């Protein structure tokens, strides 16, 4: 097994990652300005729930930093899309506007998406914390949820060293 801190992932590259023992998942990393973005997004079908997670530089200094990483995951594939600062990608906007997504604790994600795409964004994003977890008294802790619903992962998902 290769240490993730030493792994160099090239944009456009697809790898098979062992998130759970013996189960390998297809993960593709690319940039939103990649000529392959449209074809990669077409691989994600609406009949499979699409999980959405976003990353951005922390807004610690009163600066409103833009979304820089979009992560889409289904039962068969994960896409990690780097988005440069500035003009939002139209293909990504179309994808967000034409699919249904689920996420957890999405208040800040929604705000960051609207900051990035403005009034042209009309995303259908279910916050499972509000609709499924809290109403059933289930844990909101990500690592506990992983263990409860999927089993023990090969490595911790929320490893602060990665």
Please explain how this structure is put together.
With about 160 residues, this protein is α/β, with parallel strands linked by helices. The chain has a single domain (about 5-150), classed as Nucleotidyltransferase, domain 5. Helices cover about 25% and strands about 30% of the residues. It contains five helices and seven strands, in the order E-E-H-E-E-E-H-E-H-E-H-H. It has helices at about 35-40, 90-100, 105-115, 130-135, 140-150, and strands at about 15-20, 25-30, 50-55, 65-75, 75-80, 100-105, 125. It has a seven-stranded mixed beta sheet with strand order 1-2-5-4-3-6-7. The radius of gyration is 16 Å and the shape is globular.
Radius of gyration: 16 Å
First CA to last CA: what distance?
15 Å
Give the strand line-up of the largest sheet.
1-2-5-4-3-6-7
H/E series = EEHEEEHEHEHH
- Strands, total number: 7
Averaging pLDDT over every residue, what do you get? 88
Into how many domains do the coordinates divide?
1
- Biggest β-sheet strands, sense, barrel: 7 strands, mixed
* Share of residues in strands: 25-35%
Provide a concise account of the structure shown:
The protein is α/β, with parallel strands linked by helices and 162 residues long. It contains five helices and seven strands; from the N terminus they run ββαβββαβαβαα.
Topology diagram in text:
Elements: E1 13-20, E2 23-31, H1 37-42, E3 50-56, E4 67-73, E5 77-82, H2 90-98, E6 100-103, H3 107-117, E7 124-127, H4 128-133, H5 142-149
Parallel strand pairs: 2-5, 3-6, 6-7
Antiparallel strand pairs: 1-2, 3-4, 4-5
